[in-house]
Design brief:
Structural class: alpha/beta
Oligomer: single chain
Shape: globular
Distance between the termini: 28 Å
Number of strands: 7
Order of helices and strands: HEHEHHEHEEHEHEHHHH
Strand order of the largest sheet: 3-2-1-6-4-7-5
């Protein structure tokens, strides 16, 4: 189970309380999850971080610290954002914590999946949520929507670990994508930038009044689980509209 869970990463965005980072590392270690990624943590080297980790020092030592969510998700094929908000102008595929574990478990073989947790007080921004293919929430009492971020990470790691244990052969469960590698976060961001640029050039998208077009397209492609070869085909078509030739980098070729 542990080796499969190596493909699950926990992303924490601009965590303000150093104790929450340590407590999150402890929560991850108890469930066999080891990949922690931190985006602009306020105070990572605080003694409180290590104290709250309570022996999960290896998680902290190997934690990846980056400046943007795009950097944190560069090698991830599936991205799930946590959000307590269910009402929004553009509905997004929603999973409860338990459904999230059941969804994640069979896809961990051979691909990287990220669970993204926002700021303690304000969560994830709309721009950050747009980089997620799915949203997930923890059902709570209707009159008290408050849960410590480390406790939330503990719950999600537990649900994923239990769902993996329930699989008969977790190491050999095929990932989505028809046996082909799925596009990574970095590759998808390249596609979205290319698509937006092309739509502006053909005057389909007004950059001064974009409305929700790009978010709708992100939601559309997020549901399809594009493989790398499919993504290269789409970018080749976009390049043809532009009168150019698309040359995928070596790591993008399928």
């Amino acid at each position: 189970m542990t080796s499969v869970l190596d493909n699950l990463c926990i992303v924490m965005v601009q965590t303000s309380h150093p104790g929450n980072i340590g407590a999150a590392a402890r929560a991850m270690k108890t469930m066999g999850v080891s990949d922690l990624r931190l985006i602009q943590p306020k105070d990572f080297n605080s003694p409180q971080t290590k104290a709250m980790a309570s022996g999960a020092d290896s998680i902290l030592e190997h934690a990846k610290r980056v400046q943007t969510l795009s950097e944190a998700l560069a090698d991830c094929q599936v991205v799930i954002g946590t959000s307590a908000r269910s009402e929004r102008s553009l509905p997004w595929p929603q999973l409860t914590a338990r459904e999230c574990g059941e969804f994640v478990a069979p896809q961990l073989a051979g691909q990287k999946i990220a669970l993204v947790f926002g700021r303690e007080r304000t969560g994830l921004t709309n721009e950050e949520l747009a980089q997620c293919q799915y949203l997930t929430h923890i059902p709570m009492a209707v009159d008290y929507y408050s849960l410590n971020i480390a406790a939330a990470i503990q719950l999600y790691c537990y649900e994923c670990a239990m769902a993996v244990q329930g699989l008969k052969h977790p190491e050999s469960t095929p990932a989505e994508g028809l046996g082909e590698p799925l596009a990574t976060g970095a590759q998808l961001e390249g596609l979205y930038e290319h698509l937006e640029q092309t739509l502006i050039e053909v005057r389909y998208l007004d950059p001064e009044n974009p409305r929700l077009l790009m978010n709708r397209l992100r939601r559309l492609f997020g549901r399809t689980h594009l493989t790398q070869s499919e993504m290269n085909i789409l970018r080749g078509i976009l390049a043809a509209f532009q009168g150019r030739k698309f040359r995928p980098r070596a790591q993008e070729k399928a």
